[in-house]
Write a structure and sequence with these properties.
Strand content: 15-25%
Number of strands: 10
Distance between the termini: 21 Å
Structural class: alpha/beta
Strand order of the largest sheet: 1-2-4-3-5-6-9-10
CATH class: Alpha Beta
CATH superfamily: Alpha/Beta hydrolase fold, catalytic domain
CATH architecture: 3-Layer(aba) Sandwich
CATH topology: Rossmann fold
């Protein structure tokens, strides 16, 4: 396996930073793209170990930071909170579209041979973004979501106070930073409600979709997974509940290895992609 960092300069002061993992025998191998969630980033916890394991099982893997996720050039700290404040789901979908375009044109990723089948993994809010992108782009062949949301209602329900204040704030439990989001996030959702409807996207893409959710998820209720399954193409989709699975499947940051609960999630994801790419 080989790993290489890359930067995609979208525009001035907007960069998609990521890693590409190339398997030992890359010819004809499919590609898996990983999308982090809210207040997440590609180097958090055990994500990198997980991407390495997927790659070592015969897949190209790309893990990246959304350009407005707030993580700066050191790839570890929220040094760009001004960007976090301006992030929207629309920007995340743009990032994915740009990334997949660069994969297809071969300019930034010469390692990728041919036009591989593409899978996508999304964690938490990143799961919602991944489902929307798969539905809209028609460039994804298979989906796995980890502890995914099924709607943006949690944000929209706070809209009145959010608009009154002009922003909403969250504390980062790990760093104790106060992380602010302005009303553009709400505006983006409300400008295109059908395009940002996760369940509508789930019912329309028709792709194989493995829905993994922990039975001890403290952030996203298990009912969200059931809603995704109910909206899905049930002949091609499956939901599995992960015993002892928290929202991050037992992970903490920093980490030095893969814990058993997350290892179960990885094994099920690898098996799903392998079965649906063959």
């Amino acid at each position: 396996m080989q790993k290489r960092q890359f930067d995609i300069e979208v525009s001035q002061n907007r960069t998609i930073r990521g890693d590409i993992f190339t398997p030992e025998y890359p010819e004809g191998k499919p590609l898996v793209i990983f999308c982090h969630g809210f207040k997440g980033f590609k180097n958090w916890g055990e994500w990198q170990f997980g991407m390495e394991k997927i790659c070592n099982n015969g897949f190209y893997v790309i893990a990246f930071n959304f350009s407005y996720n707030g993580i700066g050039t050191d790839l570890q700290n929220f040094g760009e909170l001004n960007k976090f404040e301006q992030n929207t789901i629309g920007k995340e979908l743009e990032d994915l579209d740009i990334l997949v375009g660069k994969i297809d044109d071969g300019e930034i990723f010469p390692e990728i041979k041919g036009n591989p089948k593409k899978g996508i993994i999304g964690h938490s809010r990143g799961g919602g973004t991944a489902i929307l992108f798969a539905s809209q782009s028609k460039k994804i062949d298979c989906i796995v979501t980890w502890a995914s949301i099924s709607s943006f209602d949690n944000y929209l329900s706070q809209g009145v106070q959010w608009r009154e204040d002009g922003f909403i704030e969250f504390e980062n439990a790990r760093t104790k930073q106060i992380m602010r989001m302005n009303v553009e996030f709400l505006n983006d959702l409300e400008r295109s409600p059908l395009e940002k409807n996760i369940l509508r996207a789930e019912s329309s893409h028709g792709l194989p979709h493995l829905i993994l959710h922990g039975d001890k998820d403290e952030a996203v209720p298990l009912e969200e997974a059931q809603k995704l399954l109910d909206a899905s193409n049930k002949s091609a989709s499956k939901m599995e509940i992960i015993p002892e699975g928290t929202h991050t499947f037992g992970q903490s940051h920093p980490a030095s290895s893969i814990n058993p609960v997350f290892d179960t999630v990885l094994n099920k994801s690898i098996e799903w992609f392998r079965n649906h790419f063959n």
